[in-house]
Every structure is written in structure tokens, then in C-alpha cells.
């Protein structure tokens, strides 16, 4: 069976890997000049750094199993995370229940209330009970208005902008439930995983493995449209740099693009399915990456609970990952999730940096712009779908209305949130669906089994 795959991110590569393992031919087309999508890398200090910060939770078994399958398990390190919350001009430790008890901006009763309901969320497996309520309503009702305004509202606003009060409690449940799964024993410290050598190395190795097993992976190669005849996908019109478009025939097509891109690649679909695609609202990720000659703080992950700061998170990569991988430099991500029509999204790299710099002194009064050795600015469109109430009812099926045409993108990851782990899991699952629908789950000898 021949399968064409649109997108060389985690889902597309995982699908191609699963198909080629089973003896099928998979051909991946990635429009960007690199693989890995949101986990792709660029050079910093002699090493490779992700364009967007990435790590693994202990519960991310799909990704960890893939890393081991590729022979990179010896590079996967599990490290203690240091979490903080910036509020009222101070960085508070915010990693353990004891840290919450020391968080004096809330009264003792308020802290105990937050701790109790956080514990309840951690132990609740039935996420469906949260589908019909917003995080805002649930948090106010259970943890109190003051705790909501101090801890949760700034984070929801930063993550979802104008949509902050429309986000389903299921989304927040996933965040809380996932974090407890990454806690170690003893003092309940959180452990996070990182492949030393970068996520980029994992996906480059995955691309090479696909080629070794008989597939093809192309970068800087786009897909102009999916060819549909008599209600079934039969191929794609592909575009290589400097060449005329050409049609390629396939037995099935898997698209891993955002939904708003997918609808441009295919003929009109039945209204009910197309409404699920066009009804999805996305936010973009805007990141400024600072390369410093010294640390900004002692925290790996810092949530910003002060809405006067123009970024929602500060991820100091080298407070968890050895700075020697980047020439001894210190790496800091400043992150936001704006809409594409926002002023923040439209700002130039230099203007964005100038807006951010004065606020860095709030995090560290000693900060001086001379600490900055270099900076980088990345924007990722379609980075965060808005997860509203009853979201599960609006998820499009992987099998589209056109026969042999499948969709696998971040809007279909639910109740978990987007991430490389769930994209890998979804890519492999959709590949198996393609094979099962073809009635031929394993046809070759190069299965590796």
C-alpha cells in the first residue's frame, strides 16, 4: 500500500514510521526546511535548541517508547523540575503542596481550599464530568474567587487571551492530572524528561529510519491539494522547490495540518464535517528566546501571575538542561499565545524584545540588557486550539467523509492537551486505522518483529 502524508511533524512522522514498519510505502511532505514541526530545532552555542520549549512527563509513554525504539534511550534523562509563580513582585516556589502552604498572598483557609480541590482533581479519573462547565466557573465555585483571581485567571488569560473564560474545565483537569503523574517519590518533586541532543535529533533519526525501511521523507516540499475522485482520495499534487507541480498517486492520504489549512487542500466536504473543521479557533505561539551570559532565575518553569507583564511564562531551559550543551550559555524562553490579528503577534523581533526587556528587571532586579548575548524570535501558527465546553462533541473523525483520506491534528487530541507525546500516539493510531481499513495490517517482511 502507498500512503501519502502531509506534514513532517510528530504525527506525520510517527504515522510513516508505523506504516513502513509494517511493510507499506509512506511518503512524507514537509513544507518547512526541517522536520519536527513545533519540536524542530535551530543552532545555539554549538548545540540544537527547540524553537518552542519541550519536555516529557513521566506519563508520556508513547514518546518515551519511540525514543527507545530509535536507539536513543540512553540520551533520555529524567530531571527534577523547579517551578515558580511570579506574583506581587516576587517569585514564589510553586512545585509542592508545602510551597502552596507558604503562599501568603492567599489566606490559610484559601490555601487549604486550593490544596484540597487540587488533590481532588489529581485523583479524579472521570474527565467527562467537567465537559459542560468552564474552568472559570468551576474554579470560582470550588477554590474561591480570590484564589481564582490570584492563581488561575492570569494564567488562563495568558494562555487563551480573550477566550480565557470560555475554556472547558476538562482542559485544566488534564493539566493538573498530568502533572501529578510526573511526580517522584519522597517530597513529591516533579520529574521531566528531555532527550540530550534535542527533540530535533529524535525526529531527524525518525526520518532517517523511515527512509531506511523504504519510505521517503521530503523537506521544503509542499502539497498544493489532495486529489479526490468519486468520493475517495487517490493522490496529491506536490510541489518541490523550483519545479512544476506534479501529481502523485496513493492508496490513502493522511493530513496532519491544522484544520484551517486542511479545508484549503480538499474539495468541499459535507457541511457537518466541514463545520467541525472551520469551527475550530486557534491561537499562535509567540516566543522570544534569550541567550544570556548568566541565569535570570533559579526556576525552570515560571508561571506569570502578574498581568502587567507582556508574557505568560518564563521557561529557563538551562535550569534543568546542562548549559554545556549550548556553549555554557543560559537559555530563557519568554512565551505568549496571541491571536494572529493581535498587536503582539504583528510586532517585529526588535519591537518585541524592547517591550519585554523592562519587565525582566521585575523578575531579577540585577538584570541588565548587556546579559543578552543573542536573541531569537519564533512564531508558530495553529499552536493552541481553544478547548471550549462540550469540546468532545465537535471533534472531527480521523476518517474524513472522503474514503481513504484521514486527518490527524492537535484538535483531535482530547481530553489531553497538545504535545509531542500525544501527536506520536495519534499518528501511529491513525496509521493502524489506515491499514485496518485497507484490510491488510501487515504485508511485508520488514516489520522489525
**Which second-level CATH architecture of the domain at 2-75 and 196-280 and 391-438 applies?**
3-Layer(bba) Sandwich
Sheet with most strands: 7 strands, mixed
Terminal CA distance reads 19 Å
Query: CATH superfamily assignment of the domain at 2-75 and 196-280 and 391-438?
Result: FAD/NAD(P)-binding domain
Kindly report the average pLDDT value.
93
Structural class: alpha/beta
Task: Quote the beta fraction.
Answer: 15-25%
Q: How many strands in all?
A: 20
* Percent helix range: 25-40%
Radius of gyration in whole Å, from Cα?
Answer: 22 Å
The low-pLDDT segments are: 441-449
CATH topology of the domain at 2-75 and 196-280 and 391-438: FAD/NAD(P)-binding domain
- Order the strands across the largest sheet as they lie in space: 8-7-16-17-18-15-19
The top level CATH class name of the domain at 2-75 and 196-280 and 391-438: Alpha Beta
Rough outline:
globular
Number of helices: 13
Please give a structural write-up.
- The structure is a single chain.
- This protein is an alpha/beta fold.
- Among the domains are: 2-75 and 196-280 and 391-438, FAD/NAD(P)-binding domain (3-Layer(bba) Sandwich), CATH 3.50.50; 96-189.
- The protein contains 13 helices and 20 strands.
- The strands form five sheets. A seven-stranded mixed beta sheet has the order 8-7-16-17-18-15-19, sandwiched between helices. Strands 10-2-1-14-20 form a five-stranded parallel beta sheet.
- The longest helix is centred in the last third of the chain and has 19 residues, at 420-438.
- Residues 441-449 have low confidence and may be disordered.
Amino acid at each position: 500500500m502507498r500512503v501519502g502524508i502531509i506534514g513532517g511533524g510528530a504525527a506525520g512522522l510517527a504515522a510513516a514510521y508505523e506504516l513502513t514498519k509494517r511493510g507499506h510505502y509512506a511518503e512524507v511532505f514537509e513544507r518547512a526546511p526541517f522536520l519536527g514541526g513545533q519540536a524542530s530545532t535551530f543552532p545555539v552555542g554549538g548545540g540544537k535548541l527547540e524553537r518552542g520549549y519541550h519536555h516529557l512527563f513521566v506519563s508520556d509513554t508513547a514518546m518515551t517508547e519511540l525514543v527507545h525504539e530509535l536507539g536513543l534511550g540512553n540520551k533520555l534523562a529524567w530531571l527534577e523540575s523547579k517551578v515558580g509563580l511570579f506574583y506581587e513582585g516576587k517569585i514564589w516556589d510553586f512545585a509542592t503542596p508545602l510551597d502552596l502552604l507558604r503562599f501568603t498572598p492567599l489566606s490559610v483557609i484559601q490555601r487549604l481550599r486550593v490544596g484540597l480541590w487540587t488533590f481532588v482533581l489529581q485523583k479524579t479519573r472521570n474527565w467527562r464530568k467537567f465537559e459542560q462547565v468552564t474552568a472559570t466557573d468551576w474554579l470560582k465555585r470550588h477554590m474561591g474567587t480570590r484564589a481564582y483571581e490570584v492563581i488561575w485567571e492570569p494564567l488562563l488569560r495568558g494562555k487563551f487571551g480573550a477566550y480565557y473564560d470560555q475554556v472547558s474545565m476538562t482542559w485544566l483537569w488534564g493539566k493538573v492530572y498530568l502533572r501529578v503523574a510526573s511526580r517522584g517519590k519522597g517530597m513529591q518533586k516533579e520529574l521531566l524528561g528531555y532527550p540530550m541532543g534535542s527533540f530535533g535529533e529524535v525526529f531527524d533519526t525518525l526520518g532517517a529510519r523511515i527512509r531506511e525501511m523504504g519510505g521517503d521523507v521530503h523537506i521544503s516540499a509542499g502539497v498544493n491539494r489532495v486529489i479526490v475522485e468519486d468520493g475517495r482520495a487517490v493522490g496529491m499534487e506536490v510541489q518541490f522547490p523550483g519545479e512544476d507541480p506534479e501529481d502523485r498517486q496513493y492508496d490513502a492520504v493522511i493530513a496532519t495540518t491544522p484544520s484551517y489549512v486542511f479545508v484549503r487542500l480538499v474539495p468541499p466536504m459535507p457541511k457537518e464535517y466541514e463545520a467541525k473543521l472551520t469551527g475550530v479557533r486557534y491561537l499562535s505561539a509567540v516566543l522570544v528566546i534569550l541567550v544570556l551570559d548568566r541565569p535570570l532565575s533559579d526556576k525552570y518553569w515560571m508561571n506569570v501571575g502578574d498581568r502587567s507583564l507582556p508574557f505568560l511564562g518564563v521557561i529557563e531551559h538551562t535550569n534543568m538542561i546542562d548549559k554545556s550543551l549550548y556553549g555554557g550559555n543560559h537559555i530563557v524562553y519568554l512565551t505568549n499565545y496571541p491571536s494572529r490579528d493581535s498587536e503582539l503577534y504583528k510586532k517585529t523581533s526588535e519591537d518585541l524584545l524592547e517591550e519585554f526587556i523592562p519587565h525582566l528587571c521585575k523578575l531579577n532586579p540585577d538584570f541588565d540588557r548587556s546579559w543578552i548575548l543573542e536573541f531569537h524570535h519564533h512564531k508558530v501558527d495553529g499552536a493552541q486550539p481553544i478547548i471550549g465546553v462540550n469540546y468532545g462533541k465537535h471533534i472531527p473523525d480521523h476518517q474524513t467523509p472522503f474514503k481513504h483520506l484521514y486527518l490527524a491534528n492537535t484538535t483531535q487530541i482530547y481530553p489531553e492537551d497538545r504535545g509531542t507525546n500525544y501527536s506520536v500516539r495519534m499518528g501511529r493510531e491513525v496509521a493502524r486505522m489506515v491499514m485496518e481499513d485497507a484490510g491488510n495490517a501487515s504485508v511485508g517482511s520488514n516489520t522489525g518483529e
